[in-house]
Amino acid sequence: MRSSPATTRSNHREQEILDEIRLAGGSCRVGYLAEKLGVSNETVRRNIKALQARALVRKVHGGVLLSEDMRLTEQPFQTRMREQADAKRRIARRLVDMIPDGASLFLDIGTSTAYAAQALRARKELYVVTNSLAVASTLATINGNRVFFPGGELRSHDGGAFGHDAILFVSRFNVQYAVLSVGAINADTGFMLHDLGESELSRAAAARAQTRIVLADSSKFGQRAPITLADQDDLDILITDTVPTDTIAKMLEARDIALVSAT
Questions:
Q1: Cβ atoms of 66 and 27 closer than 8 Å
Q2: What is the pLDDT of residues 220-240, one digit of tens each?
Q3: How far is it, in rounded angstroms, from Cα 112 to Cα 11?
Q4: pLDDT at residue 67 in the model
Q5: Long-range contacts of 162-166 (CB under 8 A, 24+ apart)
Q6: 5: pLDDT strictly greater than 60
Q7: Residue 158: inside a domain, yes or no?
Q8: CA-CA distances (angstroms) from residue 172 to 38, 66, 149, 230?
Q9: Which of 94, 146, 196, 235 makes the best surface tag, with the fewest CB within 10 Å?
Q10: Against a cut of 0.90, is the pTM above it?
């Protein structure tokens, strides 16, 4: 179901509020946020209430604090490529076991999907849609693959293509598999990302796929990020490197998401 314009504006403003709090050092007053965003104090309070319900912030008298357990920002792409590298390789190899030659698939911008692209060099005649320059450069021009990449400006820190045009481009394709990465997973909120643009593009890609697969190493468990991945009940499989906690396992079971171990 499509989000209403009002919901989209509210989600965007919540992201702006989180960004401003981070830039202010982790805490600030309601009046300061209202002035920076050009909205009323009451509007900011409503958004803060929504953020607090998701455990992303804590309200204090006259202001707001970031929750201590939330990672608002990610490390640079190349730094993240070095983190949990062995686990990501195992996850990637397990994914390849599920993907036959000639399959059609979407891969997003994450480091887990970058490792997946490297492992998928073992397959041939793939039909690949991606907004990740790393994925595209890994799989293009080999093994009879066809690789499709949206035009427009690439983000400087990770080589990703985002925005309205990228979403329209991705929405033109129907694929067998959407392979997605996430920034955090916990039992309360489920799957989360650090960037609203990534969330919107992932949602568009997932909607056009027959099977939706999330790749996540165990360092994502029990963490929080600002943006909740939409339509989580439509996800089909989580591939990870270790058995998650009982609470996360129950969340997956409640959403009928199959757990696949890459141990």
A1: yes
A2: 999 888 888 888 999 999 999
A3: 26
A4: 73
A5: 162/131, 162/197, 162/198, 162/201, 163/197, 166/131, 166/201
A6: no
A7: yes
A8: 36, 39, 12, 19
A9: 146
A10: no
- pLDDT in the model for residue 1: 45
Q: Write the pLDDT tens digit of every residue in 113-169.
A: 999 999 999 999 999 999 999 999 999 999 999 999 998 888 877 788 999 999 999
Instruction: Kindly state whether residues 184 and 57 are assigned to the same domain.
Output: no
One domain, residues 147 and 253: yes
Does residue 37 form part of some domain?
yes
What is the pLDDT at residue 230? Answer: 82
Q: Please report whether residue 219 resides in a domain.
A: yes
C-alpha 191/C-alpha 252 separation (Å) is 10
Give φ, ψ of 192 to 5 degrees: -135, 155
We report the CATH number of the domain holding residue 32 as 1.10.10.10
Where does a domain end: 43, 66, 89?
Answer: 66
Rounded to 5 degrees, φ, ψ at 50 are -65, -40
**Range in 13-27, 110-124, 201-215, 233-247 the model is least confident about:** 13-27
Partners of residue 66 on adjacent β-strands = 57
Tell whether 71 is covered by a domain: no
Q: Does 25 score more than 80 pLDDT?
A: no
